[in-house]
Amino acid sequence: MDILSGFLEAMVRMACPIMLASLGALFTARSGIINFAMEGIMIMGAFFGVYGSHMTGNPWIGAVFGMLAGLAASMVLGVMSISVKVDQVVAGTGINVLFLGLTSYLFTVMYPNGQPSSVNTFPTLPIPVLSGIPVVGILFRQSLLTYLAFLLVPVIWYLLNRTTFGLCLRAVGEQPHAADSLGIHVDKMRYVAIILAGLLGGLGGAALSLGQVSVFIENMTSGRGYVAWSAVTVGKWNPFGIMGASLLFGGAEAVQLRLQAMGISLPHQFFQMLPYVLTMVVLAGVVGRTVGPKAMGKPFIKGER
Amino acid sequence: MERRKPSESPLFQQLLGLGLALLLVIVVTSVLIALSGKSPLAAFQAMIKGAFGTKNSTAETMIKTVPLLLAALGLTICYRTGLTSLGSEGQIVIGGLMATIVGIYMGGLPKPILVPLAMIAGMIGGGLWASIAGFLKAKLGVSEIINTIMLNYVATYFVSYLISSGPLQEESGFYPQSDLLSQNAWLSSILPGTRMHTGVIVAAVSVVAVYLLLWKLPLGYQMRAVGNNPIAARTNGIKVARNMVLAMVLSGVFAGLAGAIELMGIHHRLMNGFSSSYGFDAMAVALLGGLHPAGVTVAALFFGALRTGANTMQRTLQVPVSLVNVIQGLVILFVLMQAVLRSFTIKLFTSKKGAAAKEA
Asked: Do A87 and B287 touch (CB under 8 A)?
């Protein structure tokens, strides 16, 4: 029982950063932008989350720092893909290299003696009654941020599928020229998506660095940004699907942690591979059966088809 | 997805754009160095001195250029075919692994046989590793971009297993590393007193080979046709899927060769992180080099010098070496923007001229 509840707890905790980032990436995907910069956005959120929490002693202010830093990184992608209209994958990669390097650089310059001490993390907030249930009760002893991440799923679903904003955003991602002729500002909508992706991705990064361990490690996202982007495809461009995909990837990470802790004799490298192999396998199974937004990756040039 | 198209503007315009991009990189980097309380001028001086100051530092720059150049040549083929591979790092690691296996278990072979054999093993390993993403793309239509990234992690963890508790760990079982390769598999020095090895020659030959492949052979023509417009290529009877897989495999072959050479020339044994992210930097090299073997050579030298110089900069001025990654990221972004930068400057100058003409 302990093993199971330990696994569930780790799964939800590991899924949270990926889910936040993936929900952010969903906005850009639905508006027709390939968000390959999520790795860079998340690492900025992770570093500035720790920085803000260390400076002020309040993890929530840290989270705001992380969101703003993620926004800054995301805006670079916005300018490159919306205004300058370059290849979005290459731009995303450049952004990742830049911000992985920049956070390492800033970390060495600002904390020459290693980790900043006493960084406050998000406190656990047990929900009364529910947290008392055996085994699954652990799911209701999470941080407020984790509840928030799960709460965002229906909110974003509603936003995308039942509001004018969502309709416009999807129109921009499917048929930008038709949307344009109806008076929707394609570039403006895409910038809104970029802003939301930056805020959520930055928050996802902060969830990673302030979630349980409260440390920043160079390169600590280790591919989670890419996994988050894959989760958008695996989740079929739908918030609920993304929740499932994030739990799947979180589960893979949790398996790795739990089995290592249990002293299973298989070499730990094989468990560490698991999330990445899983991403490849699931993508191979999903692709072809789902169709993404039509204008994905294509810069919008007014009056040109 | 929008595909990169090689720019068709004259050489001068291209150089103008590149020059502006690099100027902006230097400006932003200077600000970052100044923010850490160090003098940017002193930092750049230390970098240049560290990269080319002595015979030995020049040799170090050259040996750091070799894997960058080889991997970037592979990526050049890949990008020209319209595929975005980010998987050089994993292919380098697998290439190094294969060279290690040959170098240890066939160590009795004489040097003239063992050295090429280990290199070929590395090329095969890298090629096969890349083919996974290539086939998934061609057969199932899965984007090669995510898969190549995921394969990097898988390769790194796999090699890490082999040398830390797996069959390749050194005899004494102490460190997570393999035994030393047979001396017959070590690359000889070509500049006495330095580590500069014969891999430099292999890289130089590869530059010519990739140029010939892409611009003088029918295969290269087909690949570029696929990269320019896959639909038009298909209409003209070119097998798009086959060319894509082939380009992917070739990019893996060159990255695998880079891994084999790095291992046989420098480390002489397999260990974690022996590639020190050459594969990621190769992407910046390929882009900066304008996806042309000649340009890629210059760009690889630039990044090789940056790596060597940054070490000196860290030693003498305590500016963190991670600044190099910042510079690389900036290079990718500003080089992407060069078309905009160029037209902006040209507009700036022509409008000034126009204003002057009006005044006169």
From this structure: no
Contact state of A98 with B326 under an 8 Å Cβ cutoff: yes
* ipTM score assigned to the predicted complex: 0.90
Does the distance separating the beta carbons of A223 and B332 come in below 8 Å?
Answer: no
* A78-111 per-position pLDDT tens digit: 999 999 988 898 899 899 999 999 999 999 988 8
The lowest-confidence range among A200-204, B192-196, B214-218 is: B192-196
Are the beta carbons of A98 and B329 separated by less than 8 Å?
A: yes
Residue A188 vs residue A121, higher pLDDT:
A188
What residues does A141 pair with on adjacent strands? A126
B240 contacts chain A (CB < 8 A): no
Q: Do A89 and B145 touch (CB under 8 A)?
A: yes
Domain extents for chain B?
A: 67-308
Name which of A93, A230, A277 is nearest B86 (Cβ-Cβ): A93
Contact A87 B324 (CB under 8 A): no
Most A CBs within 10 Å: which of B332, B335, B340, as the mutation test of the A interface?
B332
Residue B145 to residue A105, Cβ atoms within 8 A: no
Indicate whether A48 pLDDT > 70: yes
pTM across the whole model: 0.90
C-alpha neighbours within 13 Å on the C-beta side of residue B254: 33
Query: Looking at chain A, which residue has its C-alpha nearest residue B139?
Result: A284
Q: From the CA of A196, how many Å to the nearest CA of chain B?
A: 22
CA atoms within 13 A on the CB side of A185: 7
Sketch out chain A's domains with CATH numbers: 2-286 (1.10.3470)
Query: Quick one: pLDDT band at residue A133, thresholds 50, 70, 90?
Result: confident
The C-alpha of A164 sits at a distance from chain B's nearest C-alpha, in angstroms, of 27
Share of chain B above pLDDT 70, in %: 95
Residue B67 · residue B261 · CB < 8 Å: yes
CB pairs under 8 A between A and B: 143
Q: Which long-range contacts (CB under 8 A, 24 or more apart) does B140-145 make?
A: B140/A284, B140/A287, B140/A288, B141/A287, B141/A288, B142/A280, B142/A283, B142/A284, B142/A287, B143/A283, B143/A287, B144/B83, B144/B84, B144/B85, B144/B87, B144/B248, B145/A36, B145/A89, B145/B84, B145/B85, B145/B86
